[in-house]
Amino acid sequence: MIWASFTHRTSRPVDGVPDCHLHRHCFAFNTTWNEKQERFQAFEIGSIKIQAPYYEAAFDTRLARRIQKLGYGIETRGHSWELQGIARSTINKFSRRTGQSEAAANQEAVANGVITVKHKDNLGSRSRAKKEPGLSYGKLREVWHSWLTNEESGSIMQAHHLGEAPAIEKKKQELAREAVSAAVAHCFERKSVMEEKQLKTEAMKRGYGEEAVQDEKQMVRFVRKSRGNCAPINPHYQPKAEYLNQEQKAAIHHALRSVDQVSIISGGAGTGKTTLMKEVRDGIDESGKQLFGFAPSAAASRGVMKSEGFNKADTLAR
Fold first, then answer.
1. What does the pLDDT look like over 278-303, one tens digit per residue?
2. Which of 107, 132, 226, 311 has a CA-to-CA distance to 179 between 20 and 30 Å?
3. Structure pTM?
């Protein structure tokens, strides 16, 4: 293969200033040498595209290992990982393009209902600014540093020392076995046949961070141990909004009548989770207790949630 790669250090500008964003664009020429035919010809990459999740997980795994060797700790986030010790509020300061896309998606969802991932990607493309020649990289570094508080600057410096000493080989093998076992349980829960690369993908995703594995186990133990240990928050509360459907009412009763310390209500985008949570909030208020609202992003917590009446909502990191 012949390819060209271009390393960029910034994102698209927001209000004339880009965020720091180290990434690389790679372009592969659609030609390869066929030794048997002794000629150049186009190549077929369909199978590579289909197996993209595997290659992405393999890349993330190798990068995670190298980051750990440099002395940084990592923790699992979503389908990948992030550095330990960096607060979500700090990350959001340098993710303004993401904030723009999320805000546009939230507005679209309010106006038109459910929004798909593909539609959200298109919104991000339409809302991005043109690349313009501007500040030098040295000047940009000064601007970025000015966005940080002393505490945030200290956290970034200390992140380099959060990584634990390299685990002994036996420990690595134990973690690998745990990651594979978890992947097997997940993959074969609903399927009897699974491609090897799919299984490896799930195993690698579960093996990113040693500490993350222990945190996950601790959370599971806490949830199991605290089952049935609590009094219901407000078992007699009756939802007041007439537009609620039966599924939403059932979720409200579940939250207010549960005797478990941890309760979860899940649902897709646009299914009315925020709407039913208003009733849960009212039920909690009636009981004399207080509800605290949190969301992963600033746009969701300080934007959408506050606009829906959850005035004290904040980010999980905060």
1. 899 999 999 999 888 888 777 777 77
2. 226
3. 0.51
